[in-house]
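We read letters as residues; the fold follows as tokens. A sample entry reads:
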Amino acid sequence: MARRKKLYEGKAKILYEGPEPGTLVQYFKDDATAYNAEKKDVIDGKGVLNNRLSEYFMNGLNGIGVPTHFIKRINMREQLIRSVEIIPLEVVVRNVAAGSMSERLGMAEGTALPRPIIEFYLKDDALGDPLVTEEHIIAFGWAGQQDLDDMVALALRVNDFLSGVMMAVGIKLVDFKIEIGRIWDGDFQRLIVADEISPDSCRLWDTESGQKLDKDVFRRDLGNLAAAYTEVARRLGVLPSNVTHAVKPHVIN
């Protein structure tokens, strides 16, 4: 596909104008960031892996009736998606205490939660994507009560799907984050899953060893990030033929 006008560039993806009205081309970069982009690397092949993995998960969700922005994968690094109005919130679903939840609440990492817990974070890099309550969301107009109810329902359905898929290949879904967008059918609004679903946006632990297979490998200097993502792709049967465990990271100074 010919390169089109760049509309937005984030930490891990670039959005280009799509071939038809209401579509975008989403390009997956090899950049890895952590701690609000204070730590940065370029990991060869990461974008290819995340493109394939996000395609796999989005197709799976579409197949069970959970609407997403995904239309089709175009090539190794690009996919065609629907243009949506992104709600400025990250929706986090936690099944096991880890990361910031463990730090905030003094819970040992790995503690099973009594039920999935949903948190909302305001998408604002300058503020460090702060945790916000439903009261904040409604008061400041980021989303209405019906939107929140629909977002929670979507998030729990995604959690059920991802948990089952991962469990089947020996991986525990610790937590994940999604973004949700609005689309309009005439005068009627619908909410759909947008952005991406990949090891960049999930915590994934091997069920037997507890080995981390997600971006914590990069955050905590636990080894080769590309190898961890490759292992997830291998288990799910979506390993791109040109990505191997031999991939090495290149550090940006």
